[in-house]
Design brief:
The chain is an alpha/beta fold. Helix content is 37%, strand content 24%. The chain has helices spanning 7-14, 18-27, 39-45, 55-65, 70-76, 80-118, 125-142, 150-161, 182-188, 226-230, 333-340, 376-388, 409-418, 439-454, 469-481; strands at residues 4-6, 36-38, 162-168, 172-177, 206-211, 214-216, 233-235, 239-241, 245-248, 261-274, 277-283, 297-302, 306-311, 321-327, 347-354, 367-372, 394-400, 422-428, 462-467, 489-493. Strands 13-12-15-10-11-14 form a 6-stranded antiparallel sheet, covered by helices on one side. Strands 4-3-9-5-7 form a 5-stranded mixed sheet. Strand 12 and strand 13 (306-311) form a beta hairpin. Helix 1 (7-14) crosses helix 8 (150-161), helix 6 (80-118) packs antiparallel against helix 7 (125-142) and helix 14 (439-454) packs across helix 15. The two termini are 50 Å apart. The relative contact order is 0.08.
Length: 494
């Protein structure tokens, strides 16, 4: 295995994000080689990293101790054949290292003999003797027992437990863990590869294997032509990575790359989140999952006639389970039907996705989200996607009409407890944010001003606003008035 590491693997080893490493490279603190870093360079910036315990060993130990037992343990580990192949590869690396060590010893012996021969001349004798003593000391130091590069050991362990996947031409990369397929691992990492059914029927996830070894783990009905086979084409939904692999595949770069879809989903659950807010959990068929970008919306149709466009409140990484937050609107036919008549296992028609309220993934700036009441739905989708991308810093300000409008407090508090890079503050406006005029406008502007005053770096970063139009118009103008360009203030009326 190479001494060079991808930023994804390096970040995992020292417990930081890719963005942090990218900043160190840009500032000149860390050397990089074609987008990769060496273990030595990594250690120079994180000298204490090699003193940490092996992350992967701890992770597996925790899994073994949980009540989930064998099923979860098997899910977290690669299957036996894949694990054996990776251990074999590690063995080859060890054998190569041992062979190189023998060659180095032979080289040192030959050098010693040469120096002995050169030392016969009187003029050079003192210099040669000094050089021989130096070589002897350095060789003894290098061969001292007990030297252990724990960071390299962690990398070897990580290489056994995971495989790195690099996608061309986009140069995205991610780690594949356990028994995930290539497609599943990419989705968990927030990388929107092209796919359709994800069940081996449509062939839309076909990709070219450039290097490395894969293993077919699922049957697929789609027939790969002989011409495609000769080009090493595989289905991402049906194969896992045995070794580190490089694939050539299409990655969605914008909303235009996501196809329009019509899907009949089933109501999985309807749960009350607050007196006037419910969670609608829809599940798509296994062979027709909803492909979307975080922050987008879809049109729902219930009872054959009642429709509404709602933002998706879940992450694209779970494309089969799609969540929505719906506020009761008395007199609205769609709202009344869902609150009063819709039952589990009924069908709901989905059409979409739509909207351009998506994450600017290439931006190096921190992310600031402002959710006004039910605007938390699309914000939640964006935050979960940002988490899958290991965003460096995520800030959420949830501004609510009243305390009940903070309808998922446990979710955001759990994020705060679990994630060092997530920062959450809730604010109670004390009035209906759907009707902000006069004195209310002054109060909202005052609250926004206090938020900016308490965080001097806020206006240097990217702002995402979602909620009722009345509040959003004021908030958008407030931030634009501070000098932020429109490209850094994204708005979604909910």
């Amino acid at each position: 295995m190479s001494n060079l590491l991808s930023l994804t693997r390096a970040a995992r080893l020292v417990g930081v994000t890719r963005v942090v490493l990218q900043k160190k490279i840009q500032s000149g603190e860390m050397a990089s080689y074609d987008g990769m870093v060496s273990i030595d360079s990594l250690l120079s910036c994180y000298p204490d990293a090699q003193l940490e315990d092996t992350v992967e060993i701890e992770r597996i130990s925790r899994i073994k101790e949980t009540a989930f037992g064998k099923r979860v343990f098997e899910r977290a580990l690669p299957d036996a054949e894949v694990l054996a192949a990776r251990v074999t590869e590690l063995g080859k690396t060890l054998a190569n290292s041992q062979s190189q060590l023998k060659q180095l010893n032979a080289l040192l012996n030959n050098l010693w003999k040469k120096l002995e021969a050169l030392g016969d001349g009187a003029d050079s004798h003192a210099t040669i003797e000094d050089l021989k003593l130096w070589i002897k000391h350095e060789a003894a130091s290098a061969m001292e027992p007990g030297f252990c590069n724990l960071l390299a050991i962690k990398d070897n362990m990580l290489s056994v437990m995971t495989a790195q996947v690099t996608v061309l031409p986009s140069r995205h990369d991610f780690l594949l863990e356990g028994q995930d397929t290539l497609l599943e691992a990419a989705m968990r990492a927030g990388i929107p590869l092209n796919y359709g059914c994800s069940g081996g029927n449509c062939g839309l996830c076909k990709a070219k294997l450039i290097s490395g070894q894969v293993k077919k783990t699922r049957h697929h009905d789609f027939v790969i032509s002989e011409a495609d086979k000769s080009q090493s084409c595989i289905l991402l939904c049906s194969n896992t990575a045995v070794s580190d692999v490089v694939i050539e595949a299409v990655v969605a770069g914008s909303v235009q790359d996501i196809p329009f879809q019509q899907i009949t989903a089933t109501v999985k659950a309807i749960d009350a989140l607050a007196p006037d807010m419910l969670l609608l959990h829809l599940q798509t068929p296994r062979t027709q999952r909803l492909r979307f970008l975080a922050g987008q919306s879809v049109s729902l149709r219930v009872g054959q006639a009642f429709t509404a466009e709602l933002p998706i409140a879940s992450c694209p990484c779970d494309d089969r389970n799609v969540l929505f937050h719906l506020r009761r609107q008395p007199g609205n036919l769609f709202s009344d039907y869902v609150f009063d008549r819709l039952k589990c296992h009924e069908s709901v028609e989905l059409e979409g996705p739509e909207g351009e309220f998506i994450l600017h993934e290439k931006s190096p700036r921190a992310l600031y989200f402002f959710a006004f009441d039910g605007g938390f739905a699309p914000i939640k989708s964006l935050i979960e996607h940002a988490m899958s991308l290991n965003a460096e810093s995520v800030h959420l300000h949830w501004i609510a009409s009243n305390q009940e409008s903070i309808y998922l407090p446990n979710v955001v508090r759990a994020w705060s407890d679990a994630l060092d890079n997530f920062h959450y503050v809730e604010h109670i406006a004390g009035f209906d944010l759907r009707a902000v005029t006069g004195k209310r406008e002054e109060n909202l502007l005052s609250q926004l001003g206090q938020i900016v005053d308490s965080d001097a770096g806020l206006i240097q970063n990217d702002i995402y606003l979602a909620g009722p139009e009345s509040a959003l118009n004021i908030a958008e103008q407030f931030f634009l008035g501070l000098g932020l360009p429109k490209t850094r203030v994204s708005v979604n009326v909910v």
